[in-house]
C-alpha cells in the first residue's frame, strides 16, 4: 500500500532550538518525496524535494530507503517557520500526503 | 496573481443542492489535480487530468461527483445532491509532467448545512 505517515500532529519548540519533523512512507517503487508547507492564510507550497538535495530556508531532508523515512530537519528554528508541514509521496499520477505536523516556534 | 486560481473561495449550500467549483491552472501545465482536505487531515486525492483526459479517479469520488476539463484548460468539479459529509476544503493543483512540483490554488471551502 502507498502511504505516508507523520506521527506528530504538533511540534512545539523555542526559537533557536533544532527541529525534526518525522515522515515515514510505504511504497513498492522508487520513491519521489516532497515536503510541502502551508503558512497561515496562504496556499500549500513546495518546500523541498529529495531529488534536488538542496537546503531551503535552512531546512534539509534526507531520504533513507532502509528506514523508509524522509525526516525534515532544521538546526535552529525561527518564529517564521511556524506553519503546517506535509510530507508527500509522488507516484506516477498523484501526490499522497501525510496528515501533517503543525510546527509552533515560540520566541 | 499568475498561479492556480479557484472560484469561489467559499460556498455555503443546503443539503441536497448541487454545487460547482472552478479551477484555472497555470497556463502551460498539462496536469490538473483535485484534492479534498478535511480538518486534521492532509489533502486526499480525488482525481486528475492530463490535458483533457481524466486519467484516474479515487474511490472517494462517488457517483455524485463529476469533474471535467474541457479543452485541457480550466476544470470544474460538480457535486450533486450535497451531503453534510461533503463539507471540506477542495483544492486544485497543476503541474507540468509527472513527479514535478504541483502548484496549489487557495482552495474552495464548502459548507453543507
How would you portray this structure in words?
The complex is a heterodimer of chains A (107) and B (113). By secondary structure, chain A is mostly beta strands. Chain A has strands at 3-5, 10-14, 19-21, 24-26, 32-38, 45-49, 60-61, 72-74, 83-90, 95-97, 101-106. Chain A has no helices and eleven strands. In chain A, strands 2, 5, 6, 9, 10 and 11 form a six-stranded mixed sheet that branches. Chain A is globular, with a radius of gyration of 13 Å. In chain B, the strands form two sheets. In chain B, strands 2, 4, 5, 6, 9, 10 and 11 form a seven-stranded mixed sheet that branches. In chain B, strands 1-3-8-7 form a four-stranded antiparallel sheet, with no helix packed on it. The N and C termini of chain B lie far apart (32 Å). The model of chain B has no long low-confidence stretch (mean pLDDT 94). The A-B interface holds A 4, 6, 9, 32, 34, 43-46, 49, 86, 88, 90, 92-100 and B 3-4, 33, 35, 40-45, 48, 55-56, 91, 93, 98-99, 101-107.
Largest sheet of chain B: 7 strands, mixed
| Helix/sheet category of chain B | mainly beta
Helicity range of the residues of chain B?
under 10%
* Strand-residue proportion of chain A: 35-45%
Overall shape of chain B: it is globular
Largest interface (CB < 8 Å)? A-B, 22 and 24 residues
Mean pLDDT of chain B: 94
The helix-and-strand class of chain A reads: mainly beta
Distance between the termini of chain A: 41 Å
How many E strands of chain A?
11
Query: Using DSSP, what is the number of strands of chain B?
Result: 11
CA-based shape of chain A: globular
**Helix and strand run of chain A:** EEEEEEEEEEE
| Rg of chain A (CA only) | 13 Å
- Biggest sheet record of chain A: 6 strands, mixed
Number of helices of chain A: 0
